Amino acid sequence: MIQGLLSLILRKSRYRTRSDRNFVSMTDRELFRALRSSGYTAAHACGLLFDAYGEELYRHCRAALGDDDSAQSALRDTVIVARAHIGRLADPRLLREWLLALADAECARHAPVPDRFCGPRPRTAAAADAESAARPAALRVRVLSGAAAPELTGYRDHVATRADHFDRRGFPLPASVERTPGPGSYLVPGLVVSVGVLLALALVLVRLAAGATWFG
Question: Could you state one GO biological process linked to this protein (predicted)?
Fold first, then answer.
């Protein structure tokens, strides 16, 4: 099954980017409809998305993360999230802005954890030149295999669930907002502890009263 998917991806490899002479670009409205439509397979819809925005999103991730492997992984997950949550976006005119916001959220998840003693890693020359960096030759195959291969359904479900935090416009919430607990998360444990203390105190008083009555 996965070999057939790869063959389909490779057969269409001459229609890649907006800079290709043979590439017929879809409008954002058409791409928006294709991503939402049940008439397109996951492989086809994600392929259209990659052809329209894959190179730009890869450069965006490469600039944020500073290395090819992390950028490719972030791009793969961005495509997965876009396909899974396109229904959150109501306005097709915001598609490009939305995709870049998804990419930012995935880059934050794929960013290396800073060493608490050494601090964040310094920005490398490769990261600074990422805007002009050429994309890896197998980028399309790697991204679309992760986004559409039947064998990776479980992984895609995990990525889509992990990213399921959006604002009213359908844009992803920052990671800090996702993890910020609401007031109830502090209030309820405090109430539970307080009630427990009161119950323990009441039990002690009852026992003391019973003892006083016995000796009295």
Answer: DNA-templated transcription initiation
